[in-house]
Fold this protein.
Amino acid sequence: MSSLDLIIFSLFFFPFCALALSWLAGTDAPYVPTKMKNINKVLKFARVRKGKKFYELGSGDGRVVYEAASMGADAVGIEQSILRVWYSALKARNLNLPNTKFIHGNVFNKNYSDANIIYIYLLTKGVKKLEEKLTKELKKKTIIITQTYHFQKLKPYKKIGDFNFYRI
């Protein structure tokens, strides 16, 4: 392989690897898509509908955000992987869901005081950090849904399978 071939290969290979790693990026949760079997039921129980502001913290490929948007909510996904943000925004456009927004960033650095409903599917460490942040930041009656990994201090008012519901 000549030097020129190596340079050309590097110009294509390394950006591709960076993009692939971006898809898998996540410090507080690996990319594990939510199984959609119970999501509609869970979001209906949380009263996701028009006039509500819904956030998914760690939105992955956007599937929960799309469901909330299809129920009428203004739905926002916060995601660490720029590639998943681009993918989700493009898919939302193709699904004709103008009430969706995807933001690239750290879920711990955003303010959620305008939220009515928050959905979290992160590992224990991330959930613990968010419990402290959200209990200080959210307005009364905001609903938080956790999946699989749950808050330690707040007590859920309802459990449906792997999902816990909390009210601030």
Remarks:
- The CA atoms of residues 34 and 134 lie 22 Å apart.
- The helical segments are 3-24, 39-45, 63-70, 82-94, 124-137.
